[in-house]
Amino acid sequence: MNPREQIFDAVRNHLPAEKIDYPQIPVFQKTITELLPAFEERLLEAGATFFLPADLKEAQQLLVQQHGGGSVICSATPDIKGNRDIRKVKNPHELADVDVGVIRASFGVAENGMVWLTEEDLVVNALGFLSQHLVILLKPTALVADMYDAYVKVSLEDTAYGCFMMGPSATADIGAVLVHGAQGARSLSVYLV
Amino acid sequence: MKVALFIPCYIDAIYPEAGIATYELLQRFGVTVEYPPNQTCCGQPMANEGDQGNSAAAEKLFVQNFSGYDYIVGPAGSCVKHVKQHFDAIPQTDEVKAVRANTWELVEFLHDVLRVDALPWAYFRYKATLHNSCSSIRGLGIAQPSELMGPYFNKSEHLLRMVEGLELVPMDRPDECCGFGGTFCVTDEAVSAKMGLDKIDDYIRNEAEFIISPDMSCLMHQQGIARKAGIDLKFIHIAQVLNGGPF
Amino acid sequence: MAAKRVDPAANAAAFLDQDDIHEPAHDQNLWAARMKRDAAAKAIPEWEELRNIASQIKEHTLTHLDQYLEQFEANATKRGAKIYWARDAAEHNQHVWNILNERKISSIIKSKSMLQEECGMTQFLETRGITVTESDLGERIQQLDNQPPSHIVMPAIHKTPADIAKIFSKAIGTDPDNTDPHYLNEAMREDARKRFLQAGAGMTGANFAIAETGTFVVCTNEGNADIGAAVPRVHIASIGIEKILPKVTDLGIFIRLLSRSALGTLATQYTSHFSGPRKGGELHIIITDNGRSKRLGMDDFWHSLKCIRCGACMNTCPVYRRSGGLSYGATYSGPIGIILDPTFDESKYSELPYHSTLCGSCTDVCPVKIDISDQILRWRKVMAEKKYLPISRRLAFTAAGRIFERPTLFHGVETVASAALKITPHFLLYNRALNPWGRHRELPHFAKQTFREWFMQYKLKNQEDKQQP
Ligand code: SF4
Questions:
Q1: Which value, in Å, is the radius of gyration of the alpha carbons in chain B?
Q2: Counting one residue from A and one from C, how many pairs have CB atoms under 8 Å apart?
Q3: Under CATH, which number does the domain B127-243 receive?
Q4: Is B77 near chain C, with CB under 8 Å?
Q5: Per-residue pLDDT tens digits for C269-302
Q6: Which residue stretches of A101-171 are H helix?
Q7: Number of CB pairs < 8 Å for B and C?
Q8: Which amino acid residue places its CA nearest to atom 8 of ligand 1?
Q9: C108 alpha carbon to ligand 1 midpoint, in Å?
Q10: Lesser CB count within 10 Å: N end or C end of chain A?
Q11: Is the CB–ligand 1 distance for residue C305 below 6 Å?
Q12: Phi/psi at A104 (nearest 5 deg)?
C-alpha cells in the first residue's frame, strides 16, 4: 500500500462510529442595513482610508495628488493610468520597486471593510503584495452585507487566486502594538468610484 | 421535602461556621434538614488527579450516605459539580444517578428550588465583592460566564442584593480563576500564588472590604495569600451573609 | 530512549521569577485580546449559534473525513495542484526536500504553519543546506532567537520590545536601545523583502481546505503568505487532514469566528484562497496525517481535531497567561496544547494535564466548542492509569482513598488538628505539598469545633429541649 492508501485506510478504520449530520444553516438576520456607511466605517477601523471622487478623471487626479512625484505607479485596471505597464510584466520580481499598485475590486463587504481581489483583477498577483501602497477602486454600489453573502458571491471555480483584503498589512507581534506595513502594503486607500 | 446537608470535609474542619449558616438558613425557610453523620469526602481530590480507583471508594460511600433524599444540598460549588458531572468512577446504577441528579449547590437551591425573594433578617454593612468559583459559574451555571454571549444573570448576586446594607463592588476580571484548583495550588504553586495575588490586587483596586463566595475552597487559598502578604481583607461564605451569621 | 518529561510547573515558575516585567505584560496583553474577543463576539447576535454550527460542521466533516479528503484531492488536482500524501513528519519533510531538490532551490521563505512546526521541517531542511526564512514577524523573532513559537497566533508574545530590540540588533544590526515597534518592524520589513525576492519557493500552511472546490485558505495579517505565494515560482502548502471543510459557504461561518476569537478583529487583513497554481507558477500540496488519524480513533479525544488554531483558549487561560507558552515544552501550548501534545508522546507530556485549574474558560471560549477542560481531566485519568503520575502523588491518594472509605477513621483523625493536617483538607494531602502551600500562603486555621461536633451537640440539645415539658 502506498502512503495515500495507508492514510485513507487509517482514517476509515478510525472514523467515529456515530456519524454527525451536516447542520441546517439558518438565514441569519442582517444587522447592517445601510451598506456604504458601514463599509466606510469598517475601512477606517481596518487602517484603510477612503475617498469619493466624482468620476474616474477626478480619481486619476486624486492619485497624482496622493502619490505624485517620482512614484512608480502600476495599474491593473484600465480605469486608471500608471507609469508601469502590468501587461508587460513577465516575472513578479519586476514589481519589486512599485510604489503604488492600483486595482479594481469587484465587490466589498460592509461587515468588515474587505475588498475581493482575484488573480484576474490583479493581473499579476504580486502587485497586491509587493506594492508599497495600494489604491483600490470600488463601485460604491458593489457591496454585500456580510461574509455569508460574500461567500455566495465569490466564484472560486473561476479563479486560481482570490483574496479578501481588509486594509493594509498589519502586525502586533512586537509588544502587542499595532503597526501597519509589516510585509504587504503600508497603506490602502479605497476610491469609491 | 427530604433534604440532606452535604458538608464537604474542609468546611467541616476549617469553616464550620459556613456549615452552621447553611443549616440555619435552610431551616429559616421551613426546610427539614438532615445531616447524614457518616459522610466524608466526595472524592473530588482523587478524581481530579485522575485517580479513578481511589475516587471510586469515596463515591460509593457518598451514594450510601445520600441515597433516598429529595435534595442533597452542599455549600460548595466545586464539590457539588464533582458529584453532578464527574461522579463516574463507579457503575452508574439508578441509585447513583438519582443521587447525582438530586445534588444541589446552596445558591442554586435557594434561587431555583426555594425561589427565595426576601432575606429580612440579613444585614451586612460592608463594601464587598463576589467571587463565584469557576465550578459554580462554568460548571453549574449559577451565573452567565463572561465567555458566553447571552443575557446576564448571576444567582449569587441576585440573592446578595436582598441583603440590607451590603454594597457590592464590581471587579476588573469578575470570573477569572483565582488559582486554587485543588491540588494545583500546591503542585503548581508559583502560578497558583500569582493568580491568587492578582485576584487580591483586583479586590484592593476596587476597594472591597469583604470577599463573599459560595465556594470556601477558593477563599481558603485567597485568604492564605492575603494573610501571608499582610493584607487585611476578609473572606466569608455566602451562607453566612445570607443567614446573617455566624460571623 | 524516552524523551525527558516536561515539567510545566517548574518552567512556569522560572518564567514568573525572571523579573516583574515579562509575566505581567504577557498576562495583560493576552487578557486584552480576550477582552477584544468578547466585544467582537457580543456584536454578533448569532454568536453562540455560530459556534454550534461550526462545531457541527467540523464533526460532520471529521466523521466523513475519507469522503471529503477524496473530494478535495480530486478537485485540487483538477485545478492543477500536485498532491502529495505524508503519513508522518518524516514523509512530509521528505516531500518538501524532494520538491526543492529537483528544482535546485536553495532558499525558501515560509509563512506561519503549525504543521511544519510539528514536523520540525525547518531544522530538517537547514541540515540539508536550505536557507529557511520565517516571514511572519513573530515567527521570525522566534527563529532568530532559536526558540519555537510560544503562542500559535502570537509567536513572540512572551517577549518584550526590549528583548526583540536586542535580538534584532545582533541579527540585522538595529540599534539595541531603540525599542519602538515601528522602527523594529520597518527594519525587519527591509530585511525580509530581500529574502522574499531571493527565495526559490514560498511555503504556507492552510487554515481551511474546501472539498467542494479544491481550494485552501490562508489567513494572515501581514500578507506574508501572499508574498511567498505570489513572488517565487513554486508554492508548497502543508495541510493537515483535519483542515477540510465541505463547502465554500462554510467559510462564511468560520471566517467570521476565526479572527474574532483570536484577536477580537473582524477578520485577518488577508484571507486568501488558493485553487490551483497561479499563472506561471507551481502549486504543491502535502496532505499530512502525522498522528491525526490515530487521534480520530480516540473516543475521548477526537473532538480536539475540530480545532481551528485560533488561540482563544490560550488567551483566556489564566494558567497559560502566567506561564508563558514555552513552559509547555511542546509545539502546542496552552489548553489546546495540553490535549494535543500527549497524543504525540504520553510520557514526555504526562505532566501537562496537571498544569490547569480546570476552570473551564477554554471550553466556553472555543469557537468550535471543543470540550477542552473535560479532555484535560480525561487525560489525567489516562496518565494515572498508565502510571505516569509521580510516585508521591500516587501514594498520597492511595492513603487518602483508604481513609475516605472509612468514616470512623476519617472522623477520628479529623478532630485532632495535628493529625488532621496529614489528611485534611484535601489539597494538603501529601507531605511534599505542605511546604509549597506555606511559601506563598498562611495555613488555614483549624476550627476549635468541627461542623460535625457542633451538629451533634446541637441535636442533643434540641432533643433535650423537646423532652423537657
Ligand atoms: S481549541 Fe478552540 S479555542 Fe483553542 S485554538 Fe483550537 S479552536 Fe481555538
A1: 17
A2: 262
A3: 3.40.50
A4: no
A5: 999 999 999 999 999 999 999 999 999 999 999 9
A6: 119-122, 127-130, 147-153
A7: 251
A8: C310
A9: 29
A10: N
A11: no
A12: -95, 125
Amino acid, single-letter form, for residue C132: V
Say which residues have a Cβ less than 8 Å from residue B213's Cβ, sequence separation at least 6.
Answer: B130, B131, B132, B133, B219, B235, B236, B237, B238
Along the 193 residues of chain A, how does pLDDT read in single tens digits? 899 999 999 999 999 999 999 999 999 999 898 999 999 999 999 999 999 999 999 999 999 999 988 899 999 999 999 999 999 999 999 999 999 999 999 999 999 999 999 999 999 999 999 999 999 999 999 999 999 999 999 999 999 999 999 999 999 999 999 999 999 999 999 999 9
Query: What's chain C's average pLDDT?
Result: 90
Q: Which residues of B touch C424 (CB under 8 A)?
A: 9-10, 13
Interchain CB contact of C48 with B (< 8 Å):
yes
Chains that touch B (3 or more CB pairs under 8 A): C
Q: Which residues pair with C313 in a beta bridge?
A: none
CA-CA distance, C243 to C248, in Å (whole number)?
13
Alpha carbons C270 and B219: distance in angstroms, whole number? 46
ipTM over 0.95: yes
**Cα gap C83→C326, rounded to integer Å:** 34
Identify the CA nearest to A174 among candidates B112, C138, B25: C138
Distance between CA atoms of residues A191 and A178, nearest Å: 24
Q: Report the Cα A102 to chain-centroid distance in Å.
A: 12
Distance CA(A155)–CA(C270), nearest Å, equals 18
Locate cell 480576550: which residue?
Answer: C34
C113 closest CA partner among C143, C81, C152, C151: C152
* Chains C, B in contact, 3 or more Cβ pairs below 8 Å: yes
Q: What is the pLDDT of residues C181-233, one digit of tens each?
A: 999 999 999 999 999 999 999 999 999 999 999 999 999 999 999 999 999 99
Give the start-to-end residue ranges of the domains of chain B. Answer: 3-113, 127-243
| All cell numbers assigned to B113 | 428550588
**Are C421 and B86 spatial neighbours (Cβ–Cβ below 8 Å)?**
no
CA C283/CA C306 separation, integer angstroms: 26
**Rounded Cα gap, residues B142 and C252, in angstroms:** 34
- Tell me how far CA of residue B118 lies from CA of B22, B23, B28, B105, B240, in angstroms: 16, 18, 12, 19, 15
Please indicate whether, in this complex, the C-beta atoms of A164 and C91 are within 8 angstroms of each other: no
Supply the DSSP symbol for A22. Answer: P
B150 by Cβ neighbours in 10 Å (0-12 / 13-18 / 19+) ranks as exposed
Query: Is the separation of the CB atoms in B122 and B25 below 8 Å?
Result: no
Kindly report the protein residue whose alpha carbon is nearest to atom 3 of ligand 1: C366
Distances (CA, A) of B148 to B172, B176, C73, C306: 17, 14, 37, 19
- Torsion angle (degrees, nearest 10) of CA C83, C87, C92, C93: -150
Backbone φ and ψ for C267, nearest 5 degrees, come out as -165, 175
Q: What is the pTM of this model?
A: 0.93
- Under 8 Å between Cβ of B24 and B244: no
Residue owning grid cell 492575603? B226
Whether C254 and C54 have beta carbons less than 8 Å apart is answered as yes
Q: From the CB of C154, is ligand 1 less than 6 Å away?
A: no
Residue type, A105: A
| Binary contact (B57, C401; C-beta < 8 A) | yes
What's the CATH number for A26-192?
3.40.50.10420
Which domains are assigned to chain C?
44-290 (3.40.50.10420), 391-467 (no CATH)
Tens of pLDDT along C299-315? Answer: 999 999 999 999 999 99
Crossing angle for the helix pair C47-63 and C65-78, to the nearest 10 degrees:
90
How far apart are alpha carbons C24 and B197 in whole angstroms?
12
